[in-house]
Each structure stands twice: as C-alpha cells, then as structure tokens.
Amino acid sequence: MRIISGLYKSRKIVAPKNLPVRPTTDMAKESLFNIINNLYYFDDISILDLFSGTGNISYEFASRGTEQITCVDQDFGCIKFINQTAEAFKMPIQTIKSDVFKFLEKSNLQSNIIFADPPYSFTDEQFYKIPELVFQNNLLLEEGLLIVEHSKHTDLSKLENFSYSKSYGGNMFSFFEIL
C-alpha cells in the first residue's frame, strides 16, 4: 500500500503478511479522499478509524495534516503495526485495542469523520449495527460523515441516516450523516 498525497506522498508501507486484513485499494482510497477533500480541511477535523487493520486510511489522513486520529481494532498485531508505523513517520495517531462494537457502545469520542472498514464477511446485521451505534451514541459531530466500506453485495441504503454510496470496482463506500 502507498500513501496517495500529502507530506508522505508516494511512501510505501509494507504490512506483515500475518495480519488479518484487506487494505482499501489505492484506487478506491484515492477516490474516497477526492470526495473528502471537497468537504473538509484536513487540519481541522478529527478521525475515528474503526476496524483500522493496517492503518492505511489513518496514514492518509495524517499525511494530509489531520492531527486527531484514533484507530480501533481488536487485533494486537494490527495495533502494534499501526503504533510502529505512526512512530516511524511521527504521525499523530492514537490506538485503542478493542472490539469495535464494545467500543462504540461505551465511547463518547465524537469525530468529524468516522471510517469503518469491517470484514466483508460480516452479516448484514453486523453491518447495520455500526451506523446504529454511531448515531445512537451521538459519536458523529455536526456536519460529520460516517463512511462504511463494504462489498457491492451489501446494501446499506435503507438504513436511517444513509445519504449516498459510491462504488469503485468491488469496493463500495456508504456515507451516512446527521439528517
């Protein structure tokens, strides 16, 4: 994986092969950040990266100037890798090792953008629970976005607070906002 833009543009990051991850493709990530770039100033926002895996999305935000980034993942190897990479690049990324659903149930951390990239193998009910918990616990700041990455076989369009979705190859991003 590589960082698309910003301070660390073109830097390659090689994750250990034993991590249970499926990083967002560069093409999908570049398209996603083109959307976000038109909505926010990166240095003015806070990010919550759920199911953060390798930290791919968080590195992109940090490279573009975001100072408040929190990654949540339940895998110790993923958290360790994110911490090592953030330290090597001097990125302002904090990590929390936790089951994402338990974190969402207890957290009061509000963010401008909440990005969730759960396993594509999740059931529909597991996918539905993410926006439900985010909005139920008021974790999204006003004019914020919840972005859920999923396969084209998952449909989140009927959920409350759904705004729109974008498809990039086999990847889809569903966008939710306070309505």
UniProtKB/TrEMBL annotation:
<keyword id="KW-0489">Methyltransferase</keyword>
<dbReference type="InterPro" id="IPR002052">
    <property type="entry name" value="DNA_methylase_N6_adenine_CS"/>
</dbReference>
<keyword id="KW-0808">Transferase</keyword>
<dbReference type="InterPro" id="IPR004398">
    <property type="entry name" value="RNA_MeTrfase_RsmD"/>
</dbReference>
<dbReference type="Pfam" id="PF03602">
    <property type="entry name" value="Cons_hypoth95"/>
</dbReference>
<dbReference type="InterPro" id="IPR029063">
    <property type="entry name" value="SAM-dependent_MTases_sf"/>
</dbReference>
<protein>
    <submittedName>
        <fullName>16S rRNA (Guanine(966)-N(2))-methyltransferase RsmD</fullName>
    </submittedName>
</protein>
